[in-house]
From TrEMBL:
GO-annotated biological processes: phosphatidylethanolamine biosynthetic process
One Pfam family from the record: Choline_kinase
Organism: Oryza meyeriana var. granulata
Domain of life: Eukaryota
A GO cellular-component term linked to this record: cytoplasm
Name by which UniProt lists this protein: Choline kinase N-terminal domain-containing protein
Annotated region (Disordered), positions in chain: 1-22
Family, similarity comment: Belongs to the choline/ethanolamine kinase family.
Gene Ontology MF terms: choline kinase activity; ethanolamine kinase activity
C-alpha cells in the first residue's frame, strides 16, 4: 500500500541507499536518475530508505532526500531536514496465483495518467517508484464512521464509472474458482473442512447466477476495498483509493457487498484472516451507504 506519514511506522532505522539499503540496485539507480532531474533535491547521494509496514503482497519503502544542514544562529550543528519523498514498491514473489502482475501494472499506469491514485514516477525490473501521498491510511474503525463511509461511497461510484482500456469482460468468477482450486490443492483435509472449501463452489455459482442478470450494472471494480487501501487527507477530506491488483470489470453490487464484508475485518488483529461478522453493517448502514453512492455524481 502507499506510504503515509501518520499511520505507517518505520520498521527500523533508515539506511542510506548507497550504504546497503535492501532495495534492489536497479531501484537505487532509478532513484538517482529521478533525483538528478528534480530542482528540490540538492544532493542525489543524500538518500535515505525506510522500510514501511502494512503491505500484504509487496515490500514498500519510503525514499527521501535530506536537505543540507543549515547552520543556526546559535552556532550549534543543525540536523539534516527531510526533503522530497517518494514510495518504492518492490513486487512480492509468488503472487501470480492471485493476480496477473502485468495487468496490474497496466491498470496502475492508466489510473496514474488519469489522475487517480499516486502518480507513477518510474519503473525498474521488479517494482516501481510512485508519488508519496501525504495522507492517512484508514483504520478498521474508520469504515464505520458515517461521514467517512459516505465519502467512500461517493469515491467508489467514481471508480466504477472509470473508462478503462481493454475488454470489459467479467473475470471475478473464473478468478474465484482458480483460487478455490489452488486452496484445495494446498490445504490438508482438516483445514479444507474447517474453511468449508467443498461448499464454496456452490456459493460461487449462486453468486454468478444472481449477479449475471441483465439488470446488474457492470463497472470497473476494485475488488479489495479494505481499510488499508483507502487514504484520506485530514484537512481536505479528499479520499484516495489505492492498490489495484484485483481491479477488473464486474458487477458493482459485488464490489459494494465485498466492501461491507471488509467492515468485518481487522488485519491488525492476532487472527487477521478471520472476519468478525458481528461487525457487518446492519440494514440501516447498508442503506445509507447505497444512498450516498447513488446520490453522488460519480
Amino acid at each position: 500500500m502507499v506510504a503515509n506519514e501518520t499511520s505507517q511506522k518505520a520498521e527500523a532505522a533508515s539506511t542510506a541507499a548507497a550504504g546497503g539499503s535492501s532495495i534492489p540496485e536497479e531501484a537505487q539507480r532509478l532513484l538517482h536518475e529521478l533525483a538528478a532531474g528534480w530542482d528540490d533535491v540538492e544532493d542525489c547521494r543524500a538518500l535515505e530508505v525506510v522500510p514501511l509496514k502494512g503491505a500484504m503482497t509487496n515490500e514498500v519503502y519510503q525514499a527521501r532526500w535530506l536537505l543540507p544542514a543549515r547552520a543556526p544562529s546559535t552556532g550549534e550543528a543543525a540536523p539534516a531536514e527531510a526533503g522530497r519523498k517518494v514510495l518504492v514498491r518492490v513486487y512480492g514473489e509468488g503472487v501470480e496465483v492471485f493476480f496477473d502482475r502485468e495487468v496490474e501494472v497496466r491498470t496502475f499506469e492508466c489510473m496514474s495518467r488519469h489522475g487517480h491514485g499516486p502518480r507513477l514516477l518510474g519503473r525498474f525490473p521488479n517494482g516501481r517508484v510512485e508519488e508519496f501521498i501525504h495522507a492517512r491510511t484508514l483504520s478498521a474503525a474508520d469504515l464505520r464512521d458515517p461521514e467517512i463511509s459516505a465519502i467512500i461511497a461517493s469515491k467508489l461510484r467514481q471508480f466504477h464509472n472509470l473508462e478503462m482500456p481493454g475488454p470489459k469482460s467479467v473475470l471475478i468468477w473464473d478468478r474465484l474458482r482458480n483460487w478455490l482450486k489452488t486452496a484445495k490443492n494446498l490445504c490438508p483435509s482438516n483445514e479444507a473442512k474447517e474453511f468449508c472449501l467443498d461448499s464454496i463452489e456452490k456459493e460461487i455459482t449462486a453468486l454468478e447466477n444472481e449477479l449475471s442478470k441483465d439488470y446488474q450494472c457492470i463497472g470497473f471494480c476494485h475488488n479489495d476495498l479494505q481499510y488499508g487501501n483507502i487514504m484520506i487527507d485530514e484537512e481536505t477530506k479528499l479520499l484516495t483509493i489505492i492498490d489495484y491488483e484485483y481491479a477488473s470489470f464486474g458487477p458493482v453490487a459485488y464490489d459494494i457487498a465485498n466492501h461491507f464484508c471488509e467492515m468485518a475485518a481487522d488485519y491488525h488483529s492476532e487472527r487477521p484472516h478471520i472476519l468478525n461478522y458481528t461487525k457487518y453493517p446492519d440494514t440501516d448502514e447498508q442503506k445509507q451507504f447505497v444512498q450516498s453512492y447513488l446520490s453522488s455524481s460519480g
